[in-house]
Amino acid sequence: MTRTLGSLVTFIARLSTREETKAPAITAITFVVAVTMALIHLAQSYNFIFPSGQFKNLHIGFAVLLAFLMLLERTPREKVWARRWLVLLALLSLAPMVYIHIEYESLVNVRSFKPNALDVTFALLLLGLTLYAAAREWGWVIPSLSICTLIYGYYGYLLPGELFSHGGIVLWRLIGYTSIPYFQGLLGGLTELSAGTIYMFMLFAGVLKVTGGIDFIIKVAFSVGGRSRAGPAQVAVVSSGFLAMISGSVVANVASTGAMTIPMMKRYGFRPEFAGAVEAVASTGGQLTPPVMGLAAFLIVGITGIPYVEVMAAAVLPAVIYYAYLMLAVHVQALRLGLDARKINLAAAHDGTTSEAAAMTLTDACKEYGHLLFGIAVLVYFLVISMPPGTAVLYAIAMLLVMDGLKRLYRHRRQPLVGLRDVGRMVVQSLEAGARSGAQVATIIAVCAILIDFLSVTGFAQKLSLLMLEMADGNLFILMFIAAVTCLAFGLGMPTTASYILVALLGAPALVELGMPLLAAHMYVFFFANVSALTPPVAIAALVASNIAGGRFMLTALMSVRLGLPGFLLPVIFALRPELLGLTGTVADQIWAFTVTLVAVAALNLVFEGYFLTRMAWWERAVLVPGAAALLVPSLWAIGAGALTFIAVAGYQVIVSRGYKGSHKSNPGI
Predict the structure, then answer these.
(1) 69: which of 30, 187, 203, 557 fits an S-S bond (Cβ 3.0–4.6 Å)?
(2) Confidence at residue 664, expressed as pLDDT on a 0 to 100 scale
């Protein structure tokens, strides 16, 4: 019996996406929990099996349980007491999930206004477990803020000043607002969005990963960027942008793709700080890029009620400008350093081996992975026709699994049992991979929900918005500056989803109050929340990238700010030119705004690099700065002056570069 059980555990552990594990029993349990959680979400998305409150409870309960199991899985065997502690927490996490599930009808219909002692006990237990799980996975910043918010909710009546003072919340109501019986906080609206939409997209990303979508993206990146002078840097821009768009985590993307792209850029000749900055900026930009926008697009939809297709359409041109600027920057840097990647084998690794995905031709990659495009096409189509995102991604997941399953069955057509086993393994590994990452995101969103709900319940968010309006004294640009600083401050070190949720509550309402369109206001704070990952002193994306590159952190962070300049400028342009988001004007107006903005940021890029067709003199750079600024002003006279300045500098560069090349031809020894 023991031998049979041991064999079963080993078999299940081998099914896991974790190829090597020192704790097969924990890996097997984690695998079963992850797949179960994924299946519950798929079933709920298809047929709405559970009432909303029960489903949110299962979502956060499984997420916390899975978080502790994953921590246990990573904890070395030598740390006996740490492992025992995590086992205890994992077992405890089952209690509130089971209690709320069983008592759901009574909580909703009988004790919805007055919880009993058991309700309060299990609410406290769920709160403590979720805060601790999120802290262990994401750090103590968000959980600490949430704890401070709870203390503020209780002791607010003791605080002086109109901004901070409020009537206070009695203890049993305070605990009730965190989860049960009010189904707020951990079990509130944000958790519902997390369970019904964000988690489903994490499953979609897991399926893409297991079925080879990441290899396909890397191959496309090598095909697109590998033929340019800045080859490795362009590969990093394209691959990191695509992958970060669906991963939902800037840090995870920098750590995963950066491990390949950063050493490649360094070998090619880029400085460590520049290589790290390119990866950090490219990964950050993926969160701004439709159709998925690192999952934050669905948060914007959930908070504002604006249709998804409008959010996606508004983000297209800003994303193009962001990446065009970055691609131009790395190309100009390669020109300035005299590098040419077309003369080297980019697919070769530092040890002389070749990456299978990178070495594959684009034609072979399309044959191997092209079927995955059907799943992505299904997702985009259903989202565009305004199908609920959770349902749309369900069909996309089904399409990916079916298409990849058919490919595997065809490959093993002479051994059908082998083919079926391969398909089964692919399906469960896809669900496990998505469930693992989805659980991590679910815990931090749930903790953010506490923060958001209590800032609203106490009235602090509304008072802060009023204070910002008072400080701005009716001036939109002063308010934009205050909101930008607030967004950068509150976004430091936070995951993208968490930072946007917070700044959307604090900054966007004030901007809307002074006349900025609702979507423009949320895109404004969304951009600044994202680029906070590049901003010192924390600069979490640059920090991870500099560690991989072996470069100086502060220099990498400052380089990241420079390379990510559009992320800081575009939000301001949204106020000057709302047509860039498609909110006003005709299509022609939108194209015009896009064109002048792209030229303006390109000119600033050249100023920073100090290189155009050849090295630029100081006066050329000095002249281009006001010229670029003039292009951003919505006035034909200003745009005309800026365009003439740019043309004059470009013409001078043509003359100088031709003279430079001519001197080299006549004097080869120069």
Answers:
(1) 30
(2) 46
Tell me, yes or no, whether 166 and 245 share the same domain: no
Q: Within 13 Å of residue 161, how many CA atoms lie on the same side as its CB?
A: 7
Give me the domain span that covers residue 448: 191-457
Instruction: Give domain status of residue 248, yes or no.
Output: yes
Report the sign of the C-alpha dihedral through residues 550, 554, 555, 558, in that order: positive
Q: Which residue stretches of the chain have pLDDT < 50?
A: 349-354, 663-670
Where among 187, 205, 235 does a domain terminate? 187
Q: Are both 171 and 195 inside the same structural domain? A: no
- List the end-to-end C-alpha distance of the chain, in Å, as a whole number: 82
Q: What is the DSSP letter of 228?
A: S
Amino acid at position 360, single letter: M
At residue 212, the 3 state secondary structure works out as coil
Do 411 and 281 fall within a single domain? yes
Is residue 326 within 8 Å of 190, Cβ to Cβ? no
In a domain, 402, yes or no: yes
Q: What is the CA radius of gyration of the chain?
A: 26
| Cα 48 versus chain centre, distance | 28
Q: How far apart are CA 186 and CA 173, in angstroms?
A: 14
3-state per-residue secondary structure call for 39-93: HHHHHHHHHCCCCHHHHHHHHHHHHHHHHHHHHHHHCCCCCHHHHHHHHHHHHHH
